[in-house]
Amino acid sequence: MSTRNTVSCMAQGQAVGTAAALAAKGGLYPRDLDTALLRETLKRQGVFLG
């Protein structure tokens, strides 16, 4: 069971880290981050969002 969760946890960690970096770079609070920008950034990083 824990093996199946590993991939989900890795993707969530990457999303959270990317969101934090984008927010810091833009001088924003994370809640104010444009989610479309986050999705596009994750896609460029090769993250599957299907």
Provide structural commentary:
With 50 residues, the chain is mainly alpha-helical. The chain has one domain. 70% of the residues lie in helices and 0% in strands. The mean pLDDT is 92.
Secondary structure layout plus pairing:
Elements: H1 2-26, H2 35-44
Could you give a short description of this structure?
It contains two helices and no strands. It has helices spanning 2-26, 35-44. The chain is mostly helical and 50 residues long.
Counted up, domains total 1
pLDDT average, as an integer?
Answer: 92
Query: Low-confidence runs (pLDDT<50, min 5 residues)?
Result: none
Number of helices: 2
Give the quaternary arrangement of the chains.
Answer: single chain
Number of strands: 0
Question: What structural class results from the helix and strand content?
Answer: mainly alpha
> What's the helix-strand series?
HH
Straight-line N-to-C gap: 22 Å
**Proportion in helices:** over 70%
Please state the overall shape, judged from the principal axes of the Cα atoms.
Answer: elongated
Q: Which band does the percent of strand residues land in?
A: under 5%
How big is the Rg?
12 Å
The major beta sheet can be summarized as: none
